[in-house]
Amino acid sequence: MGTAGVLAVALAVPLGLSVAAAPASGAERVTLPVFAVRSSGLTGDQAAGLARALGLKQLARGEDGGVRYASEKSFLAVPTRAAGRGRDEDGRPTTRAVLDIAALKRLRTISTATALRRATSALATAKLLPRDAKPVARKTMMTAVDRRGRTIVSAALDTSVSYAFTLAGLPYEGPGAKLRLSFDGRGAATGLSVSTRGLEQAGAVEVLDAAGALDRCSRVMGQGVRVTSAAPVYWAPALATAVQTIEPSLRCSGVDTAGAQAQRVVVPAAVDARLPEPPAPQEPRPGAAGRVTSRAYGVADVGSEGTGPCSGLAHTGENLASFNGQFTSRGIPVEFSWRDQNAWEQDFKDPAYGGDDSDWADHVDMTYWQGHGAPTGFSFAGCSSNDDSFLANTDARWGNGDAEWMSLFTCLILAQESGGQRWWQRWGPAFAGLHQINSFHTVSYHSASHGGTYANYLLRSPFLWWNKPMPVRSAWAQASIDDQPAEVVWASMGPIGPGGAVSMNDYFWGRGAVSPDVPAASVTGYWYISGGS
Q1: Which CATH class name applies to 302-532?
Q2: Domain coordinates of the chain in residue numbers?
Q3: Per-residue pLDDT tens digits for 295-316
Q4: What DSSP line would sit under 243-310, residue for residue?
C-alpha cells in the first residue's frame, strides 16, 4: 500500500506455535520476525487520490493519518417514512417512523464480484492496493419478521469489501490494520475505513512454543476462563498508539465457568515479554446507601458496567472510561460505572425476576456493557454473583423504566441462531419499551477504546462537511468496523410496533430524531441488521 500501507514480507513460519501442532523440541529456539514502523496512515495526497478514485469530493483525514468516511444519506440506510410526532414518558419530543416496505423491496446492491472489482480498481488507481492481503466481500443485511418469526421483508443494504492482512504468513489484525469499503446499488462508495502502517522487517524475536503460549494465555485470562486456543498473530494497535514496532502476539480464546465465550484477548508472544500489571480493582461499591433513590427522568443520561481483570479483561476500566468521558465532556451525566467485583447481574435483571435494573440499567437511557457473552446472555463469572453470575435473556425486560438503547460489547448475543432458537426468539421478550440492542453475531475482541469511539460517533459536533452525529446503530457499526478485525460481525435489533413503526434510525437524545417507545404488548415484530467489520 505504498509508503503508508502494509509492506508484508512472505517468510517461512516455524512450526510449534499453533496449539494443535507439536511444540518445539529440546533446546530449539522458535523465532518470528519483528517489523519496524516506517510510516503511519495516509498522507494528504494519498487521501485526496483515494477520494478521486472513489468519486468523492473530499475525504476527512484524522490526526493519526486514518481515513474514515460514511455517507450521511446512504451509509447503512433503511427506507422509512415519517408518521407523526409525539412525546416520550419524560416529555421529550419523538418522531414516529415506519418501515417503507415497498422501498425496501426495491433496494438493489451490486454483486460481491462487482464490489471486489470496484474496490481493486479504486485502490489501484490511488496506488494503495495492498500486497499480501485477501479481500472478502459480503452483504450487509436487514431482516424484519413478525412475532411468529415469519419474514416481512429481507434486503441487502450494501456490499462491503474488507481486507485481511498477513505478516510472515500469520494473520495481521487489529484497528491499525483496517481497509474496508462499502458500496450502494449504483456502485457508489457509502463507507470507507483506512488505518494502516508501512512496515519493514527489522530482526526477529524468540517466541513461546505451543505449551508456553497456552500457559501465558491461561495466566492472563485467569482461573475463570478455560483457554481453548493460543494462536500466533501480529496485532496492529490503533494508529493513535504510536508504536515503533509490530511484534508477534498470541490471540487467546476461551470459555468461562458460566459457559460464556470469552472476548478474545491479545498478548505478546515473545519469551521475554513483560506483561503489564493488571489495574487495581475498583473500590467496593456502597451498600443500600449507594442505590439510586430518585429518578433522572427527563434528563438524558447513561451508565456503564463490565467485568475486568477478575474475568481476564485487563482493559475494561480504560474502555468504560473512554465511553464515560465522551458523555461527561459534553455535560451528559454518567449515573454509574461499575466494574470488576462491582459489576452485578442484578443490575440488568428485571424486578419481576428478583433483579434491580430499575435503579441501574433501566434507570438510564443507554447502558454500555463489556464482558464475556453467549447467545443467551452475558457473564459475571469470576467477578460477582449478585444475585447470580449470568444474566440470562429470560431475566431481561428493558424499557419499562427509562432505557432506550442497550449497548452490549460482548460475544454472540445477537447470533442469528443458537440452540434451535433464532435471535428474535431469544431477545424479543426483552423489549418492553427498549428501542435497540446493539451487540455482535460473532465473538468480539477485547478493547480499551471501543466505547469511546462509539460514544464519539453518537455525540460528535459537526465540522465543515463531516463529523455529524451518527444514528445509534450506525455509530455502533462504525465503531466496530474501526475497532474489530474483519472477521467480526456486528449486529443490531429492535422492535416493530403498530403500523410498522421502527426505532432503527434513532439518534442519541439531542443529536437527531428519536422514536417513541413500543410497549411489550404493542410489539408486532422485530428487525435485525448485521454486517462485517
Answers
A1: alpha beta
A2: 1-80+109-134+159-277, 302-532
A3: 555 689 999 999 999 999 999 9
A4: -SEE-EEEEEEEEETTSPBPPBEEEE-BTTPPPPPPPPPPPPPPSGGGS--S--TTS--EEEEE--GG
